[in-house]
Amino acid sequence: MGELAVVEFKQRCDADALLCALEELEQESVIELEDSALFVRRQDGETDVEHSQDFFAQLPTSGALYFGFLGGVVGWILSGASYGGALLGLQFGLVAGFILGTVAGWLSGTGVPDFLIKQVGTEIKPGNAALFLSVRGSLTSEKVLKMFRKFGGHLRHSSLAPDEEALLREALP
Fold first, then answer.
1. Do the Cβ atoms of 53 and 35 come closer than 8 Å?
2. Domain range holding 71?
3. Which residue, of 64, 81, 107, is where some domain finishes?
4. pLDDT for 29-88, tens place per residue?
5. 5: closest CA among 17, 18, 25?
6. Domain CATH number, residue 19
7. CA angle, 164 as apex, 123 and 137 as ends, to 5°?
8. Are 68 and 47 part of one and the same domain?
């Protein structure tokens, strides 16, 4: 798991703008966004949460493809090179891979933890938004800090070392 940071904004548009800027930095290979979530508390008190990564859509599909191919090859070999055995192995491999990929996505410790979103979300004022970031690499590189200075916000939570957290708090007005 990478570094976590939660930044609160008075407007959703500022949180969206910072996320877009960080995604541009990701394209430049400055940082790697593992996951991000945008939490919005509307004026009426209702909440919306938008995750940028959907681990349950990625892992089951890749698991199904990998184990489907593997099952097809093993079925073909074990059946004496018959197409029926290859098809049966392919079907079994696809199902097993999908199930294993779903379980792996559920058990993986990557991304922004849901309990953190719920915990910090209770503290967000109506009309405000919070951007949850899970980043591999440094949140305190000069280019990243420059983006935080540009869009502002208030640091609510981080898993950074104390000296790095101080740099990030200093960058946020």
1. yes
2. 55-107
3. 107
4. 888 888 888 899 988 888 888 877 655 455 566 666 777 777 777 777 777 777 777 787
5. 18
6. 3.40.1520
7. 95
8. no
Q: Are residues 126 and 142 in the same domain?
A: yes
Structural domain total, the chain: 2
Tens of pLDDT, residue by residue over 1-29, are 578 889 999 988 999 999 999 889 888 88
Contacts 24+ apart (CB under 8 A), 63-70: 63/97, 63/98, 63/100, 63/101, 63/102, 63/104, 64/93, 64/94, 64/95, 64/97, 64/98, 64/101, 65/94, 65/97, 66/97, 67/93, 67/94, 67/96, 67/97, 67/100, 68/93, 68/94, 68/97, 69/93
Residues 61 and 143 in one domain: no
Its pTM surpasses 0.90:
no
